[in-house]
Amino acid sequence: MAGFFFCIKVVKYRIIVDLWSVYMKYLSVFDIIGPVMVGPSSSHTAGAVRIGLITRTIFGERPDFVKFTLYNSFAKTGKGHGTDKGLVGGLLGFRVDDERIKDAYKFAESNKIKIFFDYKYDSERHPNSVDIELAKFDSGHNMVIKGNSLGAGSIQISSIDGIEVDIRGDYHTLLLVYKDQPGMIWKVSKCIQDYGINIAYLSCGRSEKGQKATMSIFLDGILSNEATKDLYQIPDMYLIRTVEKLEK
Predict the structure, then answer these.
(1) Whole-prediction pTM value?
(2) How confident is the model over 14-24, as pLDDT tens digits?
(3) How far is the CA of 177 from the CAs of 44, 109, 205, 206, 225, in angstroms?
């Protein structure tokens, strides 16, 4: 009987070891130690900078007004960890290791960007999440972008103007906003194929049938300006943004 229980323990131990080996196989050193950065926390600082960087690209122009609403852990400890400065710095185009992040508010002011923060708790939201409201007054351009900091500097843009997306910066990404209608996926993918760029995968979302929709296309290469111009020729195409792969 003692030998029987010993065998069970050995088998259990080997299963744990095997599972850990599989997990480690797909885990990079960046997932463990995080990126080289300014600030004390890869989740609260580096992740915040990267959310700001992608938000800057998606909005596409310098905003006059930005309101950040931080949730949960972001709201509770983010200011001490530099989350606020990281978000503002990313929005200004600073990389995670840029020393100017420490003076992000000063640079925002010199660029005439009004910055506001709010802090909330919501058990339905990710522990490190943020809503970013942006406005450009003269053009009337407004946008609300939601993001999550997933840990070790990894991030996710989860929503644009209420439409679910999943942009993480691990691929060169083509973001499209257009009127929902049949044939759009075919038209867009054919244009990309004509320029010899491979699509790794894509995802789509929409507010409702026949209304505003988004397409996130994850590419193995960077789409040329000529290809972007061709995409704009597709009827009912509202917005096109190219989000370059984030540096590790």
Answers:
(1) 0.79
(2) 444 443 443 34
(3) 29, 31, 10, 9, 17
